[in-house]
Amino acid sequence: MEHEFTKEIRRILANAFGNFADKVFAESELLQYLNIKTKSASKGSKSRGSFANLYAIYVLVEDYVAKSFHKAGKYSEYEGAMFSTLFKRQRELPFGQKLQNHALNHRLNEEFKKYFPTCDYIPILRSAETNRYWFNENLLKIKVGNKQLNLAESIIKIIDAYAENKKVAFERFIRFCESSKTLSQKEMVEFIKTLVAPNVDARIFEIVSYGILKYFYHGQKIYWGFNPDNIQGDNLKLFKTGRTNANDGGIDFVMKPLGRFFQVTETVDVNKYFLDIDKIEKYPITFVIKSSEKTGLLKNKVKELAEKQYSIRAIVECYMRCIEEIINVPVLIERFEVAVAQGHLDNILAEIVRQSKVEFNYEDDYDISDYENGDVIL
User: Fold this and answer.
1) What is the DSSP letter of 104?
2) Do residue 233 and residue 333 come from a single domain?
């Protein structure tokens, strides 16, 4: 696989290994894996960065280099790095503040085996008894002729370069959002529409969907109460329940006071839909789908897949009744245009900026609290 960032990987290897660089790149499964995981570097801020698994590699290799095992050897005698130290370090890295422990514990190894099933080695070695970790040194050593080369320092430089690339791209995205006050309303509307296109990163899609729906429902009011003599009016309020792609039980947004649940997804995988429904005990749920296909067609696809998987009609119907509504990209754009007509364009953009900074752990001269509730007009 060759992509734009491959050139940077090759440049780093050429600086380290000279004429051996191409052979090192071709023969190292670890470098091939990094090449796969960094393909989003050239796709800008709206493409997904693969930081979890990359940083699991990074912190272990960094520990390896810091203790000079790449020069002095004797890594086999090392007692191993403590999990708490590695976990703390990966959260200090750019975009790493909210990473969890899954990559260190199993996900990196599982994915590596998926890409390289014939490789004899897995990247992370772990002692469950001592909670100590090692990087598999066999993946860091490449023999070229009579020379044995160590990739450790190059691995660090490659991941550093990728993180810097993504940081610069995201800074451009944020600055463009913030500077959009110079755009006409028509240009701003068109820009936000590009952020819900089917090819954008799932996290950006979820963030923008939230901003749009929050202000679409914002002006809608319901009247309710516990008895006819005590009725109160409340505006519908949409809340984001956590970070995007979090393991939060399938609830991305929740609406008060109706108690509606929303799940954002980019797939019509019936297993995922029904898993989300099961997680919330078959409570009705609205799916916001990153697709331009008609909502009726999307729902029919889910039903057809369900009927193939489940032979009992009653089970299929039970699950299908739990799908309260499907919101696709065209419906989302329609609701965006309604919210814009109500005067919420600036608030929607401010919400996108605020949520993006939270999601990507971005810090700059702006106080994130300034964007609370979309009060700032950019």
Assistant:
1) I
2) yes
SS3 334: helix
Predicted model pTM? 0.65
Coil vs helix vs strand at 245: coil
pLDDT over 90, % of the chain: 49
Per DSSP, the three-state class of 114 is helix
The whole domain housing 28 covers: 6-167
For the stretch 155-175, pLDDT in tens is 999 999 998 888 777 777 777
Burial class, 101, CB count within 10 angstroms (exposed 0-12 / middle 13-18 / buried 19+): middle
Within this chain, do residues 190 and 161 fall inside the same structural domain, yes or no? Answer: no
Which one of 121, 139, 167 terminates a domain? Answer: 167
Residue pLDDT, tens place only, 248-258: 456 889 999 99
CB neighbours (10 Å) of residue 329? Answer: 19
Cite the DSSP H helix spans in the chain. Answer: 6-17, 21-27, 29-37, 51-66, 69-72, 83-92, 102, 108-115, 152-178, 185-194, 202-218, 270-279, 295-309, 313-321, 329-341, 345-359
| Closest alpha carbon to 376 in 353, 342, 343 | 353
Question: And the tokens for 95?
Answer: 């975009």
Residue 90 lies in a domain: yes
Token pair for 138: 């066999």
Over residues 64-88, the mean pLDDT reads 94
